[in-house]
Amino acid sequence: MGNFHQDVHKYAYTESPDSPNSTRWSLGDEAACGLRAYMRPCQLQDRSAAVDGSHPLASVCQTDHEMVFVVEDDDALREGIAETVQNLGFSVSAHSNASKLLDLLAQYKTGCVILDIRLPGLDGVAVQEWINRSSAALPVVFISGIQDVVTAVHCMKAGAFDFLQKPFGEMALRSAINAAVGSSRRNYCRRQSEELAQSMIALLTPTELHVARMISKGYPTKMIAAEMARSENTVKIHRHRIFTKLKVNSAASVANITRHAEEV
Asked: What's the pTM value of the predicted model, to 2 decimals?
């Protein structure tokens, strides 16, 4: 069995970003990859800096816990795929069966699994089912020498990211790996963004959250006061506290963060 590990985390971003220190950042802008997100690494970097590759494959998008797993019992093919992964700049862990994969997978948040259908012991379909149930559900790219349309359709319906028929070309493999890793990064980035927005919304009292939701619907202070049977001054105090806790300076940002936190 071949094992390949390569550290490429020089530019990896912090997995759990703190809430913003000022009102500079809000949910108003898309991330560089088009994801609607909040406080992402690409949003926090110097906008005047040169574009660092194609997002979400740029180094700024790389996470601290990322791995491409290769599970293939053919030694030569496994080593060839692992070399391709390394050439793409990703960390790789290659195995001849899935026994170690199940133990290692939970350690990684992004990446993908390149998985042969027919393996000694637990087969690829069973491994995919396990991955789907796990907390670190990395995208699965199946590889198979079997011309079995039924199996391929089953795998795709079960959530496989891609299915490559052996023998496949290097460009097809590179494309599948890049797309799968990029997808996992975007999904993880989205979850991190949602969790941060939720943690900020959790700072609000029930009354403040109620006011924030009405702000999100575009209600002016006067209408909020009437709906709550409170004075306008009281609502203004709530608005000030909401803006302070969320560290924003506009009603639009309050609306964006509130919606983002509740869209899960």
From this structure: 0.81
